[in-house]
């Protein structure tokens, strides 16, 4: 177990004052993340500004002590685990620095919570599109570091698509400032979008200029039931091929529907697949958009389609999706929750392959999620206390990733890699591509002190 | 003047067969670009496939001879000038490899012309959003290399926003393969968007997976005249703050309107500023979208607003913009055509500043372009045969860039840097940021053989 050099501890205490702690209580509070793995950091730095972040990185670099950025600690991949490293909490850098409605941008510090930002923006009739399920707890810095998405990505894009500029501290302790308050830019290298999704391994984000969208006046929903996943996927392709972009387009496979019905108590007919389709817009155009979406949703294999004109009726349509979370917990104490992504046309093959894995490994696996992006959550449900189930669940995992890759997809659409999927990166990328990624890592973090052991596999 | 090592010439002739030429005719044909500067390459390689590109780069690397990728040769910044280097033409790698309508993607070789691709896609009811004025001549590879945009960027994004994956040959001759046929990706470093806009200095694109959009059924336009640029910019902010995104939102300043009226013969009233606003969509929603845009366009300082319900009427509204090109040529034989970008709220300050420069340097400068993105074309009109005008035009240029930067904007929204704006990169980025860009360059092109002397200033 590495320990913190005494000289560095003295330096950091002097630099950060009350922003430096290494007592057992703070180490325990920063020892886990949404992956449910635990690893205590060597200490917790809570810098107050970017200059402190720069000085912190330079000090750690001199001692070759790694740093791991931490937002809300909600990552499901272990990206925020800081064992053997200094955890850098952005809890004190949580201000919204500016909201410029005319430019549709917000300038924020990384520690602001996604939900708190949305609340502040709503007062201006604006929102920031990334909407992960953890919005109340996760931070904008974490969203950017992991390229977080959510259901609205299908219309509005993920975190990477909604950031215009960054200030970030690289592994040399230097502050790079790229992009800005403009929505079009052909000036120099796009380090902004490179740093986004690099999970704190290339630089620590200390400020972000976010691209905002107008908050829609209203939303309306459709729920369509299909004979099978192939019929639903064909509808997804039709929906995405017409100009009225849905604001959400969620899929549930037969296993999800059965679980939601039989365990979750959802009032829904049996079906081979389900689509939840949401449109947003203003009062004048929304009915037309919903018409267009309904026309596209109709086709071979459709069993039933229901329409909700307002939020309350919409909530009833979405009840089956909500029932799913409870139902999963009722039948299995744990799940391996993966977020593979495939081309939309390969959704049926993905769903079939997942059910074949469920049979082979004798465990329930359900598939649901963001169909418009081909980004399905495959949850392998199991009891970790049952050694057989535990072994089978973990044996099914590499096969799931192999399946997604064989269909022209990839490992993660919105959760990221962290430590959880790091071992599969060699399957997702060939050796020259991984070598290029490693070279970029070495360029921005020459001593490898930023979140080592994450994202890229060992050379 | 460097010359080609005989051993390399032999190697390349053997490798490429008829794809290698160094006669005077081919050197002359590849000696210029849209910048109107000229510099003959050492030879012209026209590889037939990615393996040849890899071998070509490795051979040149062994001899430390630089390579400059070339698409349609339409760059206005000198990015494709290959003096002292081997020009790499993608004229033989111009196939559309696949159009997958269900996944809304096209897989193309870099040499396909933008216009040819659009033609092929239209048959499937799809289009690729980047729409530079040079669409018939420029290539997709060139569009990606320079992050080309166009008027539709305001709704659909520029080249970087419409590419999902790349295969590209780095400066080591290795082929990296990143991204793919999925619209959501949180797997590893985003080299795709880093390579886009790097103007062939990081890697040569040999294949691209493009994100397509559904071709709208119909378009309709508005033309609004305002008292001044401030009133027009306020309307731009209102338009962009409501959910009905315009498919184009073009601005003309008072100098443009005067030129279009008095020299171009456009039938248009005098005004301080003009907006051309286009919506696209289906027949049912388009009138509503146009209503919403008209409501947003109305406000203090509006003089008149006209509406065109179909393409023919639309063409009449856009006639003033078209008249501008002819009118410019009529009053001045040359122009310095820049494409600075500022936050939307700073458009009035940019326009005022440009007119102050026009007075100070005693030359006509007109400002027009993509207002929704704050991306204005500032054309300095002058006669290069007049030594005084020539000197004043080139003296005004750094002041224009300084103005855009002082307003929180940047050097280029869609043309890129090339050699033309390379000298101003130190004004746009601080030293640590340029150092980080140089480190990334060295990571992917360790011997500096890819398009040297472009984009980044000397260290």
TrEMBL record, chains A, B:
One of its GO terms (molecular function) is oxidoreductase activity. Residues 37-215 form the FAD-binding PCMH-type domain. Its cofactor is FAD. InterPro entries: FAD-bd_oxidored_4_C, FAD-bd_PCMH, FAD-bd_PCMH-like_sf, FAD-bd_PCMH_sub2, FAD-linked_Oxase-like_C, FAD-linked_OxidoTrans_Type4, Oxid_FAD_bind_N, Vanillyl_alc_oxidase_C-sub2. SUPFAM superfamilies: FAD-binding/transporter-associated domain-like, FAD-linked oxidases, C-terminal domain. Keywords: FAD, Flavoprotein, Oxidoreductase. Belongs to the FAD-binding oxidoreductase/transferase type 4 family. PANTHER family: GLYCOLATE OXIDASE SUBUNIT GLCD (PTHR42934). This is FAD-binding protein. It comes from Luteimonas salinisoli.
């Amino acid at each position: 177990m590495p320990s913190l050099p005494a000289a560095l501890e003295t330096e950091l205490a002097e630099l950060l004052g009350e922003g430096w702690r290494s007592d057992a209580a703070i180490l325990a509070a920063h020892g886990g993340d949404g992956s449910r793995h635990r690893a205590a950091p060597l200490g917790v730095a809570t810098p107050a500004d970017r200059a402190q972040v720069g000085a912190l990185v330079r000090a750690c670099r001199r001692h070759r002590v790694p740093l791991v950025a931490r937002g809300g600690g909600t990552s499901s991949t272990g990206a925020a685990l800081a064992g053997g490293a200094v955890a850098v909490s952005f809890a004190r850098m949580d201000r919204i620095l500016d909201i410029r409605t005319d430019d549709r941008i917000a300038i924020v510090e990384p520690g602001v919570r996604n939900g708190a930002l949305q609340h502040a923006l709503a007062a201006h009739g604006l929102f920031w599109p990334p909407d992960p399920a953890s919005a109340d707890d996760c931070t904008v810095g974490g969203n950017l570091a992991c390229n977080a998405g959510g259901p609205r990505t299908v219309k509005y894009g993920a975190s990477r698509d909604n950031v215009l500029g960054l200030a970030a501290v690289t592994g040399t302790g230097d502050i790079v400032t790229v992009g800005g308050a403009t929505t079009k830019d052909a000036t120099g290298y796009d380090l902004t979008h490179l740093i986004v999704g690099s999970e704190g391994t290339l630089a620590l984000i200390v400020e972000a200029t976010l691209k905002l969208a107008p908050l829609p006046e209203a939303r309306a929903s459709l729920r369509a039931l299909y004979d099978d996943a192939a019929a639903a996927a064909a509808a997804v392709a039709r929906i995405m091929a017409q100009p009225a972009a849905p604001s959400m387009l969620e899929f549930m496979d037969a296993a999800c529907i059965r679980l939601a019905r039989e365990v979750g108590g959802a009032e829904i007919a049996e079906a081979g697949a389900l689509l939840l389709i949401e449109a947003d817009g203003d009062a004048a155009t929304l009915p037309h958009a919903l018409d267009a979406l309904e026309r596209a949703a109709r086709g071979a294999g459709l069993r039933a389609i229901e329409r909700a004109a307002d939020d309350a009726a919409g909530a009833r349509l979405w009840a089956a999706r909500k029932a799913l979370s409870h139902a999963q917990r009722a039948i299995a104490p744990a799940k391996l929750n993966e977020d593979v992504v495939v081309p939309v046309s390969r959704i049926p093959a993905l769903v079939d392959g997942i059910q074949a894995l469920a049979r082979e490994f004798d465990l329930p696996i359900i598939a649901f999620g963001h169909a418009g992006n081909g980004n399905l959550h495959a949850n392998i449900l199991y009891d970790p206390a049952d050694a057989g189930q535990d072994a089978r669940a973990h044996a099914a995992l590499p096969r799931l990733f192999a399946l997604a890759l064989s269909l022209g997809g990839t490992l993660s659409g919105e959760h990221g890699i962290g430590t959880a999927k790091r071992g599969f990166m060699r399957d997702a990328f060939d050796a020259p591509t991984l070598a290029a990624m490693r070279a970029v890592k070495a360029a921005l973090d020459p001593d490898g002190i930023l979140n080592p052991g994450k994202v890229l596999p060992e050379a």
